[in-house]
Amino acid sequence: MAHDIRLQDVQVIDAEAVAPSGEPCAACATPVEAHDRFCPACGIPVPSSKFQVSSSRLPEESELAASKHFKCQQCGAEVATEANQRSYVCPFCDSTYVVEFSLDQSQRQAPEFVIGFAITPEQAQESFRKWLQANSWFRPGDLASASVTDKLKGIYLPFWSFSMLAQSQWQAQIGEYWYRTETYTTRDSKGNLVTRTRQVHETEWWPLAGRHHRYYSGFLVSGSRGLPQDQSLRIQPFNLPALKRYEPYFLAGWLAEEYSVEREQALAICQQEFERQEHANIAAFLPGDTHSGLSASTEFSHIGSDLCLLPIYVLSYRYQDKVYRFLLNGQTGKLAGDKPVSGRRIALLVVGVLALILIAALVAMFFSPRSKVQGPKSRY
Fold this sequence. Notes:
By secondary structure, the chain is of the alpha+beta class. The protein contains 6 helices and 13 strands.
């Protein structure tokens, strides 16, 4: 059995994400914004008359190349910052143990696509304050939110995006429901023996095997050791149709990290996810009413990859020798993070709840009819 599945992007888009806007591309009608040099969908050049960006906000590539690059010796993150930066604190682990390195020594692949920041630093700080103040009673009283907020940084982080064709050989046990009528004897409410019938559910099983193929894309793998994959998933998805061809001016005024997760490492993570999706898609297309023992052998081909820079606000801070991290999607505003809680206040809450339960139990016992003392009954 074979299934010919159409191309489908597996990435889910937030409903609140802002969709691309602008004049339609002459070739494919995709919205092209005023500062785009290429169509984000088909890649054809946009006439220069439509490229209207003030030259005052476009730094020379030589200026961007002159930026300093620091590597954190604790978490492995490698971040580019302004050339006049003399010291640096890692935004991922709040460590000052960083060393400067030369970008020429890395020989890394240049980014191909980028999504610009749609959330301003002021909006990001306000989101962080609201998030930190939520359930503030559980937060330690000595956590100075003002000094913590100053550490919030907007960073372009590297992500690997892959597309590939999955071809699978599968086999499974297919089950189909059917019902038979069964006659049985029982007693009614009066104790009399009566004969009745009922429908009994049965399942008929048979083996089945076949082929399945599907094209997958849209899964992003973090290229940063400072932001592990499980952490990056907390603030995804990104609105990928808004991807632009990379231009150096996108990085003006922002930090940018060099990828520290190699393409082959990211590819293995991506294929593991696509294998999971392929298994689920095969299960969804199996005939019958149920199935069991599904196994699939999947091979990938026509593999394509893109290195993308995506906007994320990162804030890491230490409290009582433990590092806490706040993340905010710089495009959609989706946030996630961990914050310290006061053990003393939680203990007080638990003691208060237990005390209330004890009081309620004592009140119930006191007012229970069984607890009332009865006098001696009269003999007459």
